[in-house]
Design goal:
It contains 15 helices and 17 strands. The protein is α+β, with helices and mostly antiparallel strands. It folds into four domains: about 140 residues, Beta-Lactamase; about 100 residues, PAS domain (Beta-Lactamase, 2-Layer Sandwich); about 80 residues; about 150 residues, Histidine kinase-like ATPase, C-terminal domain (Heat Shock Protein 90), CATH 3.30.565.10. The N terminus is likely disordered.
Length: about 525
């Protein structure tokens, strides 16, 4: 049977129906269209079937079945002539609404009959919408892919900015789960990777900080919408560093606060510079004040002390002469002398702070210093209701120090601890080895008192700053302790929270001659 005989006997409806089924089956438009072209060749006894679509440079054969003889110029010429057929080449335009997609071309060995041409044209008509939908889908997918790449690029750019910031930054939601964790948080402080942090609660990650304190800080931002800012000290990196913590409210749209952004900035150098500058100003002011106080106060104090001593001698003479002297006279003179001595100690404290005198140093065992300090204070009236306990590490190395000055520091810290526990409690003195030669010896005074407010922690070593009631302290004790420990090449720090007691920690270098 010749191709022309086949083409004249084919039933157009059967061919169209069969190809429509093939175009509707499966998901891949390329596979479906190729299958339709191959069936078209088989049914019409053709040599070649091709799908030609408009590209940037004109018609391009996108899919082909059978031979490869039809050229773009032949297809374009027939389209320009209005479509149709020419001898053994039939072309039908593919149109979807106002849009021209291309053409369907068929090469046969003999001219097609009318039934075959009708079937061929119908196939082109049902193929065009399929191709249009596929083309639109490809464009939509391409647009989605382009926008996705754009969003990914923008996100990477934003992430790069956040990761490049010289501050640690993380974001939590209302369930306290971490939603963002920048690179500085990975490399600094506790050094937790982003993969470990994302999705977990902040309490699981910052486990060194009291969970209730963290929760209270976040809840305050969620509730009030106000920024919080404070400074903390951390040894997570191995050395003491000061961090300024800022908590910022974040809203998604115009809704209520949904997240809290926390920024941690290392301000150690800035804080130390501020401290040195402030300390210099204070020392200069106190030096001038002390000089004036010594001149204005010491002379009248000496006069009062001499008069009190003369009165005591006079009272002794009167008693020897049989004169009845009031019994309270001696007590009043003792009070006068005690208060004069207290005034002198305040003046001497000012001088010690403003012009610290370098004392003679010798190798000293810190445990012996602690035991002597405890012995001196345990009979004091302030310690009657308190318990003093020691936990001393026998392996701590000796320090090069002035033992009397260290005893003075420990006594001052114990008296402060006693003031923080007016009723009862335990004061613990503990010694242990440090982690490095500059901090070879650590001595701690631990109390169970009312603690120190966070706002006051940064000021407790300032001269004249005190949280005690009026008349209970001059605000010089901790300042003098700070000066003594600093002069010994050491450092004094405090850990405290309201209602949780305080720990004052003295860190001293070891004895290089040991």
């Amino acid at each position: 049977m010749s191709p022309s005989d086949v083409s004249t006997t084919v039933h157009p409806l059967a061919l169209v129906s069969d190809i429509a089924v093939r175009l509707a089956s499966g998901d891949d438009v390329v596979t479906r269209t190729t299958d339709a072209l191959e069936h078209l060749i088989s049914a019409l006894g053709a040599r070649e079937a091709g799908l030609w679509l408009y590209g940037a440079n004109g018609l391009v054969c996108s899919l082909r079945a059978g031979d490869d003889t039809v050229s773009a110029e032949e297809v374009a010429a027939l389209l320009d002539a209005g479509g149709g057929g020419h001898d053994t080449l039939a072309v039908r335009r593919l149109v979807a609404g106002p849009r021209r997609l291309g053409a369907l071309a068929l090469r046969t060995s003999a001219p097609l009959g009318s039934d075959a041409l009708l079937a061929f044209g119908t196939v082109a008509n049902i193929l065009a919408p399929e191709l249009s939908r596929a083309d639109q889908l490809r464009k939509l997918e391409g647009e989605i892919e382009r926008r996705t790449r754009q969003l990914d690029d923008e996100k990477r750019f934003t992430d790069q900015i956040v990761d490049s910031l010289p501050v640690g930054l993380y974001v939590i939601d209302r369930e306290y789960r971490v939603q963002a964790w920048n690179r500085k948080r990975e490399t600094g402080m506790q050094g937790i990777s982003r993969e470990q942090a994302l999705g977990r609660t902040i309490f699981e990650i910052l486990h060194r900080a009291p969970a209730e304190n963290l929760r209270r800080e976040f809840d305050e931002v969620f509730r009030t919408g106000r920024m919080q800012q404070f400074t903390i000290e951390s040894r997570a990196s191995g050395e003491p560093r000061a961090y300024r913590i800022t908590k910022l409210p974040m809203r998604m749209g115009d809704s209520a606060i949904t997240h809290v952004i926390t920024i941690g900035e290392d301000v150690t150098d800035w804080t130390q510079a501020q401290d040195r500058f402030a300390q210099s100003e204070k020392l200069a002011a106190i030096g001038q004040l002390a000089a004036g106080v010594m001149h204005e106060v010491n002379n009248p104090l000496a006069t009062i002390s001499a008069c009190a001593e003369s009165l005591g001698l006079r009272l002794d003479d009167l008693r020897a002469a049989g004169v009845d002297v009031p019994s309270q006279s001696d007590e009043f003179l003792r009070i006068i002398d005690a208060e004069v001595q207290r005034c002198k100690r305040i003046v001497d404290g000012l001088l010690d702070f403003s012009r610290p005198r370098s004392a003679d140093k010798a190798p000293a065992a810190i445990n012996d210093v602690v035991e002597q300090a405890v012995f001196l204070v345990k009979h004091h009236s302030r310690f009657r209701k308190l318990q003093l306990q020691t936990r001393l590490d026998p392996d701590v190395p000796p320090v090069m120090a002035n033992a009397e000055q260290l005893i003075q520091v420990l006594m001052a810290l114990m008296i402060n601890a006693a003031d923080a526990m007016p009723d009862e409690g335990t004061i613990t003195l503990r010694t242990r080895r440090g982690i490095s030669e500059p901090e070879a010896v650590i001595a701690e005074v631990i109390d169970e008192g009312q603690g120190i407010a966070r706002a006051d922690l940064a000021r407790i070593f300032e001269p004249f700053f005190t949280t005690k009631a009026p008349g209970r302290g001059t605000g010089l004790g901790l300042s003098i302790c700070y000066g003594i420990i600093t002069e010994h090449g050491g450092r004094i720090e405090v850990d405290s929270a309201e209602g949780a007691g305080s720990t004052f920690r003295i860190l001293l270098p070891g004895n290089p001659q040991a």
